[in-house]
Amino acid sequence: MVKFPVYNCTGHDINVLNRNGVVQTIPSCGLIRLEETVIVSETLSTEYGEIAFGEKKFGRVVGVPEELEEAKLSVVIVSLVVLQQIKDDGGIEFDSPLSHHMVVAPDTGASAVRDEKGRIQYVVQFLM
Prior knowledge:
This protein is mainly β. It has one domain (6-33, 63-127). It is built from 2 helices and 10 strands; from the N terminus they run E-E-E-E-E-H-E-H-E-E-E-E. The chain has helices at 67-70, 80-88, and strands spanning 6-8, 14-17, 23-26, 33-46, 49-62, 75-77, 102-106, 113-114, 120-122, 126-127. The strands form 4 sheets. The chain has a 4-stranded mixed sheet with strand order 1-6-7-10, covered by helices on one side. It has a two-stranded antiparallel sheet with strand order 2-3. Strand 6 (75-77), helix 2 (80-88) and strand 7 (102-106) form a beta-alpha-beta unit. The chain is flat, with a radius of gyration of 18 Å.
């Protein structure tokens, strides 16, 4: 059975319940993110004071660790917003260091296990 290396590029450790019923911690090894531009469009006077409102536009994927360029097929964990941007852009470009990896995001929705304060304790699956 082939065991694929896993690169957690979310910027924080991820706890996952494996199929043997054991919660494993996947340590972060970097942060793949999107370039972003924030545009403040207006300020509103609220009961909490003057608050700025605007929009954020996302650009290309940045921060791919160099070790992924040489790595063989592996699982690369990114945030859901990065995964969605990759999908919306039609996938990963052929010359991207991510092109020969399986890029996934933790499923932090209803399947995630949370504590009494709503904080995620672990996930049980990843989204492709």
